[in-house]
DNA sequence: CAGTATCCACTATGATACTG
DNA sequence: CAGTATCATAGTGGATACTG
């Protein structure tokens, strides 16, 4: 997960693109391999148990799932509820704050869905030229 | 930069949160350390030369700046123009496609600015508890 | 069930030096 | 000026085995 950086370099008036800025911090947090997938799953389905999540995000290791969930929980985006039964049962769900993040995430998703073809096309053009030039 | 993954596992109807989905690809691309900063700078100022960019994104190495710019260029988000003068002059600018990405990026930025305090507060609470529990 | 603890590989990033 | 090449390293992600 993102290393926790000091905000020493930050400017007083937030420049969205300066180092140490909120959006960079956000990207550092959700730009990892599993965060948005977890956020997405929880957003779709509501409360979800650890193993359920692991199965839905097939491919994730227990270590990474735990790590991702802990980070999201730490940031107040996900709530973790432990039911003291045996065997223990733990449920994860989006917090209200986590819910609000779905909006900008959706904007990003929509952009990518709408422009994916263009990006892919650009890649092919670029790679073709690269092939010519070595 | 993101490893280029096969899309073999993708479902036919795009699930925004499934692996290999457009939004994941997008996050893989712009979730790195410099892409959104470069996008942001170019969005703010229009055409910009290599060294100008390097100075504005103070802290970036030439290698990373080149790598980031190449990736963005490959994806059709940034245009690279070489002026065959001596010494050579290269200008970078957002393509129309790159411009459209500023909208969802702005949504993300606004979210982070608006909710940063909550996230930070949540972290402190979490870390305080972690201290208690070991 | 829901983790934790280890060890390992790869990747991303960076410092530095060199070049057309 | 605008890179490229090389070397070094930290951090990310993963496989596996163990535990309350």
UniProtKB/TrEMBL annotation, chains A, B:
Instruction: List, for all copies, the residue spans of the domain called HTH hxlR-type.
Output: 21-120
> Any transmembrane segments, and where?
none
PROSITE patterns xrefs: HTH_HXLR
GO MF term set: DNA binding
Q: What is this protein called?
A: DNA-binding HxlR family transcriptional regulator
SUPFAM superfamilies according to UniProt: Winged helix' DNA-binding domain (SSF46785)
Which organism does this sequence originate in? Kutzneria viridogrisea
Keywords (A to Z) from UniProt = DNA-binding, Transcription, Transcription regulation
List the lineage, top down. Answer: Bacteria, Bacillati, Actinomycetota, Actinomycetes, Pseudonocardiales
């Amino acid at each position: 997960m993102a290393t926790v950086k000091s905000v020493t370099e930050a400017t007083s008036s937030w420049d969205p693109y300066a180092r140490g800025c909120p959006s960079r911090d956000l990207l550092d947090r959700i730009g990892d391999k599993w965060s948005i997938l977890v956020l997405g799953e929880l957003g779709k389905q509501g409360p979800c148990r650890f193993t359920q999540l692991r199965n839905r995000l097939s491919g994730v290791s227990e270590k990474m799932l735990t790590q991702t969930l802990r980070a999201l929980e730490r940031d107040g985006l996900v709530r973790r509820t432990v039911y003291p039964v045996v065997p223990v049962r733990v449920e994860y769900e989006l917090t209200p704050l986590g819910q609000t993040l779905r909006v900008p995430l959706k904007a990003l998703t929509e952009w990518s869905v709408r422009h994916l073809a263009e990006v892919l096309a650009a890649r092919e053009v670029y790679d073709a030229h690269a092939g010519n030039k070595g």
